[in-house]
Design a protein that fits this description.
The structure holds 2 protein chains of 2 kinds. Chain A is mainly α. Chain A has 2 domains: 3-587, no CATH class; 593-668. Chain A is built from 27 helices and 4 strands. Chain A has a two-stranded antiparallel sheet. A two-stranded antiparallel sheet of chain A has the order 3-4. Chain A is globular. The relative contact order of chain A is 0.08. The mean pLDDT of chain A is 86. By secondary structure, chain B is mainly α. Chain B has a domain at 265-488. Classes of the chains: A mainly alpha, B mainly alpha. Chains A and B meet through β1, α5, α6, α26 and α27 of A and α5, α6, α11, α14 and α15 of B.
Chain lengths: 669, 488
């Protein structure tokens, strides 16, 4: 099979799975749908692997292939086609997406077991994978935007999966609307590029960008910044991030797949994909670096104080994507993509472990109530620690190699990038701290009642589950985890998936060890062959190792700090009291939600009310209609008096009008 | 010279006439036949259409020789797909009427069929007087449908609608006569569009005639600030008729701009287009903001239509060098009709599940026992908000691109409307399908017969989403020449 055929197969298998599950939702039993969904993604992964080998068989210059299915909107100078681009970057993304998705489908096969919406879940999840693959395989702006919006829609459907929870539907629409704002940014950005290059096709517009725009030309910078808006919205970067913590309303496998491993990294992919544009507009790229750096710090500070288990990991995701955005915007492409890959492994693992704890807690996610799960859930504990060490950048776990490689490259680029790298190390300290704060609180200490119950061999069930956010009684009819839902870490599917990811989280970093191998960098070379910076920024191995060592020390320091405060004998409360103002500021998440509410949501709602109650009533119905309807009333009274119906009145008017005006013009002619 | 277009146009009315005298159970079936034949015709014409050959299937007969009015019909790239849209939506409404037969079904079907004939006539007319005649004829059946079958204060609603549109119609009538007379002083009087186009008026004459035509079309759409008749009429009109009215009748106005105003008044278009563009952008923003504050499901759709028609107007008057705006507007006219019609049917189905209420505050949690309905509704709702991947997005993309290259600032403003669309469309979906079960809701799955109406429309939306190119090819040449004529 040719590489392009394989590319289409990778794309279409998950779609076929989704459609098949959707159409047979009544005909087949639930478990079959779970198996079908998992098998479809597994098959897509096999195709992706074959595609990888097919691509590697080709010469270095022939590793960028475009395959066109049909013209989509090829008209009046616009060249939108249904076309995919297969090159090392998209193949890497396909491998990560399908690989991690397969494991998460396997996990969901067990985890969602007792859920009434099981079939719907797999249909959505397969659709999500299709959308994500469409996004990464798209060969032009148009199709990219389609994939971009599809993942947004899939994310919306899965956030609102338990749709009787008003908190879930509210989180869903919030995520969707912010993402649509990002889509609009992408569209407008694409217009700027199109205006100069006259093509929506990636490779064509990359070729032309040098002639079409001078370096840092205003139009190009504006276009790239608008594209960045799309990237920020999807990747939860400041100030478009507020939807991501709320998105934790979705089932845990969704958080793991969409809101950690794959979708939220789309912005990173976008910048890497469009690197020729950003390298030609360094001012715009600088915006990306700065926002990425700001996000990694802001998210880490919030992560320090959040008490919801999944939200800690969500803020950590935001922060880690901040590193990646900062990296690819600073032309540190290979390291950025490397971190994207390892992050997918260990962050998906962390979410899965969290899901296991949450199910043991009867659906409760509050860290304040968790403790002592270490002994009763040893497997989950091990996974959480592996994920946590990888996230904190402790050798030889995967995050150690990838995150610190980013920072080493940033230092090598020097100048302002050096400052950002130092801030990155500050972020790394906080990362290690909040990660192990979470682990120490949930797994160490005295056993909570739920852990106690688990040690007796059965699971805790809330007598009447309520939504902690608003006190609403949970509606288990649509499948909010009911009594039969909880399986803790016992199920085989979950164990295989978590085990697989744990192994990847440990060894995933070995593809790129300074002085030993640079497999990923070499693999990606054909995509970045046109980038001077790709080769130019290259610290010496010694410098890289020094960077790695600093990173490891900082990670260890963070873990030690977490131990002294939250571990044995620590006194978290007095520490918190001493830093009260800062703590309040962080707990309120830097007041971003409030600011957006005040600046955008309320004015819009106010305008709507004004338009409806005042404008429409007074102006449209009052002045415009009032005047004319007054005249009509008088007229119709006159018409009624000669016993005429409305039709005759209408016909008469028509006739008089027609003949009168007709006569006038005919006479004058 | 062929008779095909005459059959296409008048067959519905003929069947309507037959159904008027048929028993209640039979009338909708006759209407169904009356809509099916034109549908078959358009499908054939789409396969047969030659995008490069200009006007096709021309019927050209003398009619009122003294006044230079000819019975001239024809198909070109502009109207082909709009005719298809008309036939598809009319057919869906006819199926709906067969499933849920109204009181005095014979008369209802007659009015409905007359409406279809009028719309088809307006689309195929190649003579200005003929267009005006059909355009005015559209009003009559819907006036009766609102007046006799409407709900609430139907008399007032019907009157308001008639008054508003009549003002526009009469202005247009006068302007049409004036155009013909002025364009050919001394010579043979002719209303045929190609003749009028060959003898364009002076700029000052075009200027005021443009205003008359534009007013008529803006009222019909409706566009801001001429929407005063819309809320009452939408609240009152029976839903199967409203689906056709909102989906198709408003498109005659958009078509009128492309077919009549731009070619006949190119100089005036250049003078006035800034005003039209500003009205378009206000329509987009105002309609969207209204749509997410309304609680009546029909009005949400009504105001969303104002916003969508605003996009279409924006595209038409963008007048960018390659005609992207106008091309997008043409595509979007088809798309909007195709999504808004099923939404009205969905509203009818929702009302059946909430004791007849059309207030979304009474809805909630309907998805649980109606997953198929929920899925179909979701697809249509996403298409309505111009989700990328839908043909609506292709349309909006072209419209905004056109506006972007000619009036960049307005394109930015209009794109706010894209974000707002996601708010009102999802708000309506979530409030009805999701959240806690509403106070009046007893949910149940849609029946197979309801599926006969909704599923084909949704399939059409999906098919169009996969391959909008088909419609784009048909229109490209005509759209380009129209816009180029204005730019010259």
């Amino acid at each position: 099979m040719s590489v392009t055929t394989l590319g289409w197969l990778v794309l279409l298998t998950p779609l076929a799975g989704s459609v098949l599950i959707g159409l047979t939702f009544k005909a087949l039993p639930q478990r079959v749908h779970g198996a079908l969904g998992t098998a479809a993604i597994g098959l897509a992964f096999v195709f992706a692997v074959l595609m990888f080998f097919g691509l590697q068989d080709r010469g270095e210059e022939e590793r960028q292939l475009v395959s066109v299915a049909w013209d989509y909107a090829n008209t009046v100078g616009v060249d939108a086609q249904l076309a995919i681009l297969i090159d090392p970057l998209s193949v890497l993304m396909c491998l990560v997406v399908t690989g991690v998705s397969t494991l998460i489908h396997l996990y969901s096969f067990s985890y969602m077991g007792g859920d009434r919406g099981y079939t719907r879940f797999f249909a959505y999840l397969n659709f999500f994978v299709f959308s994500m693959l469409l996004l990464v395989l798209a060969a032009n702006f148009f199709l990219l935007i389609v994939g971009w919006a599809f993942v947004g829609a899939a994310s919306y459907m899965l956030i609102s999966f338990w749709y009787r929870r008003t908190t879930a539907t509210a989180a869903g629409i919030k995520a969707f609307v912010i993402n649509v704002a990002g889509d609009v940014g992408l569209v407008l950005g694409a217009y700027f590029i199109f205006q100069g290059t006259n093509s929506l096709d990636f490779l064509t517009s990359f070729e032309r960008v040098g002639e079409a725009f001078t370096e840092n030309q205003t139009e190009l910078v504006a276009g790239c910044i608008l594209l960045l808006v799309g990237a920020f919205a999807k990747s939860a970067q400041v100030p478009f991030h507020t939807w991501l913590p709320d998105a934790m309303e979705g089932p845990t496998p969704v958080s793991s797949l969409i809101h950690a491993a794959t979708m939220v990294t789309a912005g990173v992919y976008l910048i890497a994909r469009l690197h020729p544009l950003f390298e030609h507009a360094p001012d715009a790229a600088m915006v990306g670096s700065i926002i990425g750096c700001a996000t990694l710090l802001i998210a880490a500070t919030i992560g320090l104080v959040v008490t919801d288990l999944k939200r800690v990991i969500a803020y950590s995701t935001m922060s880690q994507i901040g590193y990646m955005i900062m990296a690819v915007s600073s032309a540190v492409y290979a390291a950025g993509m490397f971190h994207l890959m390892t992050h997918a492994f260990f962050k998906a693992l962390l979410f899965m472990a969290a899901g296991s704890v949450i199910s043991a807690m009867g659906g409760n996610q509050d860290l304040d109530r968790m403790s002592g799960f270490r002994k009763v859930m040893p497997f989950t504990f091990a996974c959480m620690v592996i994920g946590g060490l990888a996230l904190s950048g402790i050798p030889p776990f995967s995050g150690f190699f990838s995150k610190d490689e980013i920072l080493a490259y940033m230092i090598d680029r020097g100048g302002v990038y050096l400052v950002m790298a130092i801030l990155g190390y500050v972020g790394a300290l906080m990362t290690a701290f909040y990660t192990f704060r979470m682990i120490f609180r949930a797994f160490f200490g005295k056993m909570s009642p739920e852990a106690e119950e688990l040690s007796h061999g059965h699971l805790y069930h809330a007598p009447e589950p309520t939504n902690p956010a608003n006190g609403e009684v949970e509606d288990t009819e649509v499948g909010f985890p009911g009594p039969e839902h909880h399986i803790a870490e016992r199920a085989g599917g979950m164990k295989i998936a978590m085990g697989g990811l744990a192994v990847l989280a440990i060894v995933g970093g070995f593809v790129q060890i300074p002085g030993v191998t640079s497999a990923l960098h070499d693999f990606l070379h054909p995509t970045f062959h046109d980038s001077e910076l790709f080769e130019e920024i290259h610290p010496s191995h010694t410098a890289e190792w020094i960077g790695l060592a600093i990173g490891a020390l900082i990670g260890a320091a963070g873990i030690f700090a977490a131990w002294t405060i939250y571990g044995k004998g620590g006194n978290a409360a007095s520490f918190q009291a001493r830093l009260k103002p800062v703590h309040t500021f962080f707990v309120n998440k830097w007041f971003f939600d409030e600011a957006i509410d005040f600046l955008i949501v309320r004015p819009a709602a106010w305008m709507g009310r004004f338009a409806n109650s005042t404008f429409e009533r007074l102006f449209v119905n009052g002045a415009l209609v009032g005047g004319s309807s007054g005249a009509i009333r008088a007229l119709s009274a006159a018409v009624r008096s000669i016993q005429s119906g409305y039709l005759r009145y209408y016909a008469a008017l028509l006739l008089i009008g027609f003949s009168g005006l007709g006569a006038y013009f005919l006479i004058s002619a | 010279m062929t008779i095909h277009l005459s059959i296409l146009v008048f067959f519905p009315a003929l069947m309507g006439l037959v159904s008027a005298f048929s028993p209640r159970s039979l009338a909708p079936k006759i209407l169904l036949v009356g809509t099916l034949i034109p549908l078959a015709y358009t499908i054939y014409m789409i396969t047969d259409f030659d995008a490069g050959a200009g006007l096709q299937y021309v019927t050209d007969d003398a009619w009122i020789t003294e006044l230079g009015i000819r019975y001239k019909l024809g198909i070109d790239g502009l109207n082909l797909w709009l005719i298809a849209l008309t036939c598809v939506v009319a057919f869906a409404s006819a199926v709906w009427l067969s499933v849920r037969t109204p009181e005095r079904a014979g008369l209802f079907c007659f009015h409905f069929a007359l409406g279809q004939t009028a719309v088809l006539g307006a689309f195929v007319a190649q003579d200005l007087a003929l267009f005006v005649l059909f355009f005015d004829l559209m009003l009559v059946p819907f006036y009766f449908i609102v007046g006799q079958w409407g709900s609430g204060d139907r008399a007032a609603a019907a009157l308001k609608m008639v008054i508003y549109t009549l003002v526009g119609s009469l202005l247009m009538l006068a302007a049409a006569v004036a155009t013909a007379v002025l364009s050919n002083p001394g010579g043979e009087l002719s209303f045929v569009l190609t003749d009028l186009q060959a003898n364009l008026l002076s700029e000052s004459q075009q200027k005021w005639l443009f205003v008359a035509f534009a007013l008529a079309f803006l009222i019909k759409m409706p566009a801001f600030p001429f929407q005063g008749w819309m809320p009452d009429a939408y609240r009152s009109m029976p839903l199967p008729a409203l689906a056709f009215f909102s989906g198709v009748v408003s498109k005659v106005a958009a078509y009128g701009f492309l077919k009549l105003v731009l070619p006949l008044f190119p100089a005036a278009t250049n003078d006035w287009n800034v005003i039209l563009l500003i009205l378009a952008v206000i329509s987009i923003l105002y309609g969207s903001i209204q749509a997410f504050t309304q609680t009546n499901a029909r009005l949400i759709l009504g105001y969303s239509s104002i916003a969508q028609l605003g996009f279409i107007t924006l595209g038409i008057f963008a007048i960018d060098a390659s005609g992207q705006g106008a091309q997008g507007a043409l595509l979007q006219s088809i798309n909007h009709g195709l999504v808004v019609a099923p939404l009205f049917f969905v509203v009818a189905l929702l009302a059946e599940r909430a004791e007849g209420s059309e207030d979304i505050r009474d809805y909630g949690g309907i998805a649980f026992r109606a997953p198929v309905l929920a899925a179909l509704f979701l697809i249509v709702a996403l298409a309505t908000l111009a989700m990328p991947g839908s043909a609506n997005f292709a349309g909006e993309f072209l419209i905004l691109l056109g506006a972007f290259s000619s009036v960049q600032a307005l394109a930015f403003l209009a794109s706010i409307g894209v974000i707002l669309a996601s708010v009102y469309a999802l708000r309506m979906y979530i409030r009805s399908m999701h959240n806690r079960v509403g106070p009046k809701v007893t949910s149940f799955e849609m029946t197979l017969r309801d599926g006969l109406v909704l599923v084909p429309l949704v399939l059409a939306i999906i098919a169009f989403a996969l391959y909008p190119q088909l419609a784009l090819d048909a229109g490209e040449a005509t759209v380009r020449s129209t816009v180029e004529a204005v730019l010259r």
